[in-house]
Amino acid sequence: xxxxxxxxxxxxxxxxxxTTPEPRREVxxxxxxxxxxxxIAQLVGxxxxxxxxxxxxxxxAVTNGLDRGEHERIQGSLGNRYPVTxxxxxxxxxxxxxxxxxxxxxxxxxxxxxxxxxREILSGDPLPDADRGPDDVQIxxxxxxxxxxxxxxxxxxxxxxxxxxxxxAALMKxxxxxxxxxxxxxxxxxxxxxxxxxxxxxxxxxxxxVRERVGVELKVGVGRARTAQSAGxxxxxxxxxxxxxxxxxxxxx
Length: 253
Ligand SMILES: Nc1nc2c(ncn2[C@@H]2O[C@H](COP(=O)(O)OP(=O)(O)OP(=O)(O)O)[C@@H](O)[C@H]2O)c(=O)[nH]1
What we know:
With 253 residues, this protein is an alpha+beta fold. Helix content is 46%, strand content 23%. Helix 6 (157-179) packs across helix 7 (200-214). The two termini are 14 Å apart. The site of guanosine-5'-triphosphate has 14 residues, from strand 6, helix 5, strand 7 and helix 8. Keywords: GTP-binding, Hydrolase, Nucleotide-binding. Residues 108-134 are annotated as: Disordered.
């Protein structure tokens, strides 16, 4: 069984801020969003968590091992350095989607994302140390098979992008619906999924599903560990094993 701790980081009242007193230059918003994500990735990553850029105004992080004080410091650091603040909601559960559902509901109950009175909420509780186990986090690192040969070196960049995004869309939907797992595009041809306790057959099924739906061929390495960083690193090594052995699924246990 997995026990994933998820933190939802949601910018406070960001929509109105982007248009007040008049619409802000898009290039400035893009810069702010990418810097803010870079900082969150570093702050969470320094404590062995993973952060995913998602929609940029809502960032989902896997934070097993981060306590409440560490969340407070991340929130404070953002508030000190950016013209916007963030609310953070922490929850855990045996599936990542279940945990994110609880975290989301807590923030929604505290007020709308566009409520000027809701600011820097920190809600929910991290997993107590006593409840943490060695296999709490399961991370799957998916990669498109030979994306360079099939797409990057063949098609124009936008048509390549469509292929990769279609593979991502089919995968993320299947993982969410069949396994309560959360998949995030992380660049290039890579998708990292935070998973429930899926077995090898379930990964093969996910890969078959994407091939049948959109004709994109995937391979996946999977790791389990106490933290996202450690599970994610195992997943990367297992993906290398797929490359070496020509296999589609490799599990690190
Ligand atoms: N975020 C992230 N991106 C990666 C990683 N590895 C590769 N990429 C990206 O994915 C692109 C394609 O690289 P590969 O997946 O190695 O290339 P490929 O042609 O699909 O070859 P095979 O994966 O060996 O089938 C690279 O240009 C990078 O942008 C990774 O571990 N993390």
